[in-house]
Hints:
The complex is a heterodimer of chains A (290) and B (293). Chain A is 74% helix and 1% strand. In chain A, strand 1 and strand 2 (49-50) form a beta hairpin. The longest helix of chain A is centred in the first third of the chain and has 33 residues, at 64-96. Chain A has 290 residues and is mostly helical. Chain A is built from 13 helices and two strands. Chain A has helices at residues 2-7, 9-38, 56-61, 64-96, 100-115, 118-129, 135-142, 156-180, 184-192, 197-225, 229-234, 242-252, 256-279; strands at 42-43, 49-50. Chain B is 74% helix and 4% strand. Chain B is built from eleven helices and two strands; from the N terminus they run H-H-H-H-H-E-E-H-H-H-H-H-H. In chain B, strands 1-2 form a two-stranded antiparallel sheet. In chain B, helix 3 (70-103) packs across helix 6 and helix 4 (110-122) packs across helix 6. Chains A and B meet through helix 2, helix 4, helix 5, helix 6 and helix 8 of A and helix 1, helix 3, helix 4, helix 5 and helix 6 of B.
Amino acid sequence: MNDALRRYPALRAWLLLAPSFLWLLLFFIIPLGIIVVYSFLQRDVYGGVVWKWSLDNYRRVFDPLYFKTFLYSLWIAFLTAFFSLLFGYPLAYFIATRPEKTRNALVLALMIPFWTNFLVRTYAWLTLLRTNTGLINVWLMQWGLLDKPLPLFGNTFAITLGLVYGWMPDMILPIYAALEQIDHRLLEAAEDLYASGWQVFRRVIWPLSLPGVVAGTMLVFIPSLGAFVTPAILGGGKRLMIGNVITNQFLGAHDWPFGSALSVLMMAVMLLATLVYFRTGGDRAGQGGL
Amino acid sequence: MTASAAKVARQHRTRHWLRRGLFVAYGFLGYAFFYLPIVILVIFSFNDSRSVSKWSGFTLRWYEAMLQDHQIMVALWNSVFVAVVSTLIATVLGTLAALALERYRRFPARLFADITLYLPIIIPDIAMAIMLLAFFKLSGIGFQTWKVSIAGLRLAVPYSVIIGHVAFNISFVAVVVRARLAQMDRTLDEAAQDLYATPWRTFWRVTLPLMMPGVLGGALLAFTLSLDDFVITFFTSGAGFNTLPVRVFGMIRKGVTPKINAVSSLMLGFSLLLVTLALLAARGNEDRKIQMF
Lengths: 290, 293
């Protein structure tokens, strides 16, 4: 045995890998396979499945009722990524242009809320946004700035805000990593060549930070698309996302095959996003992208 | 000529300072956005009223209510138990996998193993949750529980929850440990071998101590992720099992009370403790940063 191990490094590698690989094979790959197979089957009247292959579930996804939810989830994920980029980029730039000590402290300060429980962070916004008893409306009305409460809750605004709040650090950190590595001499060179502030940004800084932007957009888009907690809490039960519909199929309606088809489609969209990410070189984020 | 040059320079400087000021103000606002909701949440956990939006004096009664709430205490220990067990397993498995993938450049099906290890990170928790739910129901493994007594409480923790947590944590540990291994100087291992250390001795005395910051970082990340997880626990626990996040979710559904703020503050305290631990662990690491992506 020892002799074989010494002679074949591949055997050693696989021995090291075996425990985690088996764990993931059993509790990840096989479950994934089950979902894929299920998505082509049909439910029976008792909430079980009938072993009859069909594409009905995938056809049903395009039923306006569900397809609207799917498009709505894509829209929310897009909005979340867009606003995270819009507000996150300047913040990343702000951090990257501080002196080194401040910089490290600021990155840490960004990580702390990120390390706290997602549910707790969503709940915090619930207490702020609720229509009649939310702090924001209560305060604004107390100060006489409003006559009637603003519609801050149970809508697209609330869900997007909750998701931006939850995932924006994922946008900021890769952009920061890309910005931090930009060689200052490049900026000086651009200025020496009479580039305006805007031109320096547009022609030098932005292209160099692009890998970070792509990585951040991915890291925000994917979890937002699969969101379940945020719409459940901040959507007030009125606005559903695809994650909520999938949940209902598995825990409520007991239509596992249809729920599986929805999940497979969701994962396909995410896989596509991931492929785009690798194609555009987002994986080089943090290595400067030069 | 010189006068106008000075003017231009002055204008330039004014604009520079203006821009800087605006920028600092923006940064300040950005951090306020991240911290204010949490701070307000904690403040209202001390509110002497049932309302979470009207301040009516300081009290600790919500914390007392929390400590006396049997279900919350069970949920708290469930969370800790699941996090400890799943972190231990995931750290060992993830570290071994990292060693294989980082130290052996070529072996059969390496790419396949590599992708398998990355997938749980990319796939959203909701998809992983339903996959596991379907698997546990179909395989007949079901939601059998591991019965333990901690702090005078009788816990019944479904194996399925622990299995699920390990499944997503292995990948995160592996990524963190691999990052550390990639930075390490392999010549040190070779030096040990040259000095006639056995492979085992080399591993225990050289490789492992050097990779320890990565292993610790991975374990802390796994522990945090496990404590934080709501979705996968919610789906893989069968009926009646609560971790702290699952309990909080249930409470939120019933209505908003300062008691939820108190539990949330407790969870925040946990997170802060973990961050502090991570920083302390990083102290001994020459990179000053703990390995987290």
